Amino acid sequence: MKRSTSGWVSVMIGLVCLVWFTFGGASVAYAGDTPESAWKMVKFETQWFLSYAFGEKQDASYNGERISRGYLTLKFKPVEWFTPRVTLDTHQTDNGSWAMRLKYLYGMFRLPLESSWISEPYIEFGLVHTPWFDFEEHVNHYRMQGTMFMERNGLLNSADAGVTVGGLIGEKLDKEYQKKVSSKYPGKFGSFALGVYNGGGYHAGEQNQNKVFEARLTVRPLGFVLPGLQLSYFFIRGKGNTETEPDWQVHDILASFEHEYLVLTGQFSTGKGNQKGSEVNVAGEALNYQGFSVFGEIKLAWIMSSLIGRFDSFDWDKDAGEPVSSRIIAGYAFHFLKGNFILLSYDRVSYDQPGKPADWEVALNLQVEFPL
């Protein structure tokens, strides 16, 4: 088994940042504060995905209530440049019991490098956001219906132990755009994130010494006149999380357009292997894959509603006998409070393998989010 020096690089980056901020002249805001005033620095957040669903999977019917996720987040900001965070994730295990695990546990440092080219640069160190899903889930806000395209097809998940560096490209977009369309990643010319990670994700421990490199670059090619248009490229290079270390590579391109009344995305992904290291042939070599996804949301603001639709197609190397899957998602959402809504959804997955039945589901989903 090959050892990698990337892990030591990650540790050294974190230590250098910690020393720099500790002795770089920044003052601690709460040095003389009372416990009561110190609590003002603390922020709690919650997000729940609740649903009732019925359908068929692998030719067997099911129905019932479920709790897809229950997130509880604690953040505090003792000084302007340092924000620690912990997020607990309550989920149901395969045997039906309930368990809690860590989703995020990190310290985030704001870097004093503001310029006309880079805004709000930061470093996260610990169990952190990886570069992709936090960005995509703030374009497509319907994670509560199910996971995003790449995660739904088993390529990776949204958090891992490591170091993430990111920021905005250019100054921030004006406040009117942020209020009407999106305040997340509001760089006038785009945003970026990259990092080095253990590779197991937050679902599993590290099974080898390999480290994984991930990077996202997003640009707004017409930032001055059409800021809602963004082009993103996401890249992964590393090994799957098994002792045999199969290759794991991702090349993903996303074109997205956000407007006060409309969201459109088109995505294409190709590469080999996956995070778990489970998609291999009989010789243990990583399977190639390719797929695409399109998503649309029409916002009916005058009745606090949205119509959504999504189509995915995904193919794990047909020569290895894996069927091509096609997924259709459609839904109607009623937004009764900011971040809180009910979604009635239909989800159907069909396969091109003869005799393999389609899976389908109808669900009434509720997202609860605080603060508003």
How does this structure look, described?
The chain has 372 residues and is mostly beta strands. It has a single domain, classed as Porin (Beta Barrel). 10% of the residues lie in helices and 52% in strands. The chain has five helices and 16 strands. It has a 16-stranded antiparallel β-barrel with strand order 1-2-3-4-5-6-7-8-9-10-11-12-13-14-15-16. A hairpin with a 7-residue loop joins strand 4 and strand 5. The N terminus is likely disordered.
The CATH class:
Mainly Beta
Strand count, sense and barrel status of the largest sheet are:
16 strands, antiparallel, barrel
The total number of structural domains is 1
- Average pLDDT over all residues: 89
- Counting DSSP E segments of at least 2 residues, the number of strands comes to 16
Q: How do you describe this structure in short?
A:
The chain is mainly beta.
Summarize the helices and strands and which ones pair or pack.
Layout (H helix, E strand, L loop, with lengths): L5 H18 L11 H4 L3 E16 L2 E17 L5 E11 L5 E13 L7 E12 L3 H4 L12 H4 L6 E11 L5 H6 L9 E8 L14 E8 L9 E11 L7 E12 L3 E11 L15 E13 L4 E12 L8 E13 L2 E12 L7 E12 L2
Antiparallel strand pairs: 1-2, 1-16, 2-3, 3-4, 4-5, 5-6, 6-7, 7-8, 8-9, 9-10, 10-11, 11-12, 12-13, 13-14, 14-15, 15-16
List keywords for this structure.
single chain, 372 residues, mainly beta, Porin, 16-stranded antiparallel beta barrel, 5 helices, globular
